[in-house]
Amino acid sequence: MNESASRLAGPVRVVGAGLLGASVGLGLRARGIDVLLADASPAHLRLAADYGAGRPDDGGAEPALIVVAVPPDLVSRVVADELAAHPAAVVTDVASVKGAPLAELQETGLDLSRYVGSHPLAGRERGGPSAARADLFIGRPWVVSARPENPRSAVNLVEALILDLGATPIEMAAADHDAAVALVSHAPQIVSSLMAKRLADSTDAALGLAGQGVRDVTRIAASEPELWVQILGANAPAIVQILRAYRDDLDHLLTALDDVDAAGSRRAIAEEIAGGNVGVGRLPGKHGQDKRFRSLIVMVDDRPGELARLLAELGELDVNLEDLRLEHSPGAPFGLAEIAVLPEVWQRTVTDLTDRGWRLAG
Amino acid sequence: MNESASRLAGPVRVVGAGLLGASVGLGLRARGIDVLLADASPAHLRLAADYGAGRPDDGGAEPALIVVAVPPDLVSRVVADELAAHPAAVVTDVASVKGAPLAELQETGLDLSRYVGSHPLAGRERGGPSAARADLFIGRPWVVSARPENPRSAVNLVEALILDLGATPIEMAAADHDAAVALVSHAPQIVSSLMAKRLADSTDAALGLAGQGVRDVTRIAASEPELWVQILGANAPAIVQILRAYRDDLDHLLTALDDVDAAGSRRAIAEEIAGGNVGVGRLPGKHGQDKRFRSLIVMVDDRPGELARLLAELGELDVNLEDLRLEHSPGAPFGLAEIAVLPEVWQRTVTDLTDRGWRLAG
């Protein structure tokens, strides 16, 4: 409980007690804010309340802020209902597409000055209230699609919610947001799913040669079809624009691969790969792409405490760990710890760890 | 030095002192085997020898086994030269495509019974002798493309090399190998590069919304164009077969996205995503796909020793860490440690860590 630090005066009404709604509720309750929960499913509502995400809304208190966290295809209808039922409240939603629900709302002719759409870039592999976490949004970007008709006070209230939940508000128009997520989320989902689909009919022997590359490319292909039909359907024009350009490049590459020895074919292949180099280099630095660090791989015996011993020894060597990733080779009696360190301590770290008997792998 | 455990009697000649050749040399030297190095570049040769990968071949000793580790487009010529120059030696190569060099060799009319092609599924982001490691191949699959004309003794010699280097020999015909790597390595490379290329012209604001999904999908897009032109060119027919099926699926999806509300469109989208679910589920269990474990995310302050303290406390709680991945949120004063544990200890781990004051994130 930390009421003094809260930017919001309660109560906040949360409509939809799934992963996002219940996480909003838990995060606000942790700051002592009164949370009024509503959900079409009585079972979801009870479960979210049991987890501490708020109390079922009995209509006894009037909310200043309403968070709509329902499936994408219900957003505009629920937002319209909430605006009508609570004529003094600011209403936001957390759907991952912003243009389509706004257009649907505009068709109703309602006054939308109290509606400010938003989208937290946060999620988990599992859904539902039981997967909710008070800390789900900490350190994440949260887009706020404010429009000229919104009073600044309404935008400020939504941004206060975001700051209270530990996220970073980023103001971005609905169309810009939708183009951005089409590029950094929706198109990669499709590219990954279609690649993974190719694996379905292969042999176990072929799949036994799979390394980290194909695993990384296809990791998000495990996503839920029902949710993605709604997301992709709601943002189709922006996604199609990216995928058409992608298909043009793919056709270009297929033509080159069909006759590798033709004039220009090898250059065409090299240009597609080099184009990928440029694109991946533009992603803000994080694991795997982070050029600020240099990595080494240490073999760690598969026994409790071995990784802790390695990290303790790195501390003794005064080496700060910038990043770490542990993997078990299938069937191997050890794991591989990939450690990122500053380039200037890399050589010393390699030497010191080797001197201490650690085995480094490639 | 561990000469007694070696399966090979030296000397072994290694032609090509880049990453793979020098790593073979280092691994064999670590077992006390005499390694004779050759490279078209005197600078590479000296560097590899300085790193301890072997001694420059002065022609004074006749090798029983020759490892050809030259760029893909040179493999067949160098293998043919080595077979002619060393009429008693078994020759293998380590190129990532096996059919094309074999076909080129067969065109020469040479007796190829002493040639056994192979391919270690191992590599690093950097190349060259300075990136070489004695442990590069430990725990990795290493395909051996034996043919009926090979005497078993020749195949055994190549497999002895592989076992000495700590890898696992997997016998697979050249065509099967090439179809497998087209699927699990070459097609994913193209899919990743083409997706990454789409990011090149985007805005910083859009890329600022990038999460782990697009990072994973595009990680291998950082690969070197020159090398990949050779690999893709040498395996083009197998790759084209996969990419044509991929493009058919993409066209199918584009048609559905062009008119989302048409009959069958949503079902078509769901089927593509569901097909990806099936494919990714067939990859042998490893990070991210491993259903044997359940993960939790712990916030770790960005100070030296904090991660070591977490791991030490997990040891005190008698929780065995099955997998670990650490990430720093950009601009955040903490990292997120994603920890995989057995499902039966998950709830206890969450409770105990929370009791000890660790903050868990979503």
Summarize the structure.
The structure is a homodimer of 362-residue chains. Chain A is an alpha/beta fold.
Structure report:
Chain A is built from 13 helices and 12 strands. Mean pLDDT of chain A is 90; it is low at 286-290. Chain A has helices at 19-29, 42-50, 75-85, 99-107, 152-164, 174-199, 204-207, 212-218, 225-234, 236-258, 265-281, 306-316, 343-355; strands at 12-15, 35-38, 55-56, 65-68, 90-93, 117-120, 141-145, 168-171, 294-301, 323-328, 334-341, 359-361. With 362 residues, chain A is α/β, with parallel strands linked by helices. The relative contact order of chain A is 0.08. In chain A, the strands form 3 sheets. In chain A, strands 3-2-1-4-5 form a 5-stranded parallel beta sheet, with helices on both faces. A 4-stranded antiparallel beta sheet of chain A has the order 10-11-9-12. In chain A, strand 10 and strand 11 (334-341) form a beta hairpin. Chain A folds into 3 domains: 3-172, NAD(P)-binding Rossmann-like Domain (Rossmann fold, 3-Layer(aba) Sandwich); 178-281, 6-phosphogluconate dehydrogenase C-terminal fold (Orthogonal Bundle), CATH 1.10.3660; 294-361, 2-Layer Sandwich (Alpha-Beta Plaits). Chains A and B meet through helix 6, helix 7, helix 8, helix 9 and helix 10 of A and helix 6, helix 7, helix 8, helix 9 and helix 10 of B.
Structural class of chain A: alpha/beta
Side by side, the strands of the main sheet of chain A go 3-2-1-4-5
The CATH first-level class of the largest domain in chain A comes to: Alpha Beta
Tell me the helix content of chain A. 40-55%
Unreliable spans of chain A are 286-290
Largest interface: A-B, 137 and 137 residues
Instruction: Identify the quaternary structure here.
Output: homodimer
The CATH topology name of the largest domain in chain A reads Rossmann fold
Global Rg of chain A: 25 Å
Please report which band the strand proportion of chain A falls in: under 5%, 5-15%, 15-25%, 25-35%, 35-45% or over 45%: 15-25%
Spell the H/E element sequence of chain A: EHEHEEHEHEEHEHHHHHHEHEEHE
Mass-distribution shape of chain A: globular
Beta-strand segment tally of chain A: 12
Largest sheet of chain A: 5 strands, parallel
Number of domains of chain A: 3
Overall pLDDT level of chain A = 90
- For the termini of chain A, the CA-CA separation is 48 Å
- Counting DSSP H or I runs of 4 or more residues, the number of helices of chain A is 13
Tell me what the CATH architecture of the largest domain in chain A is. 3-Layer(aba) Sandwich
CATH homology-level superfamily of the largest domain in chain A: NAD(P)-binding Rossmann-like Domain
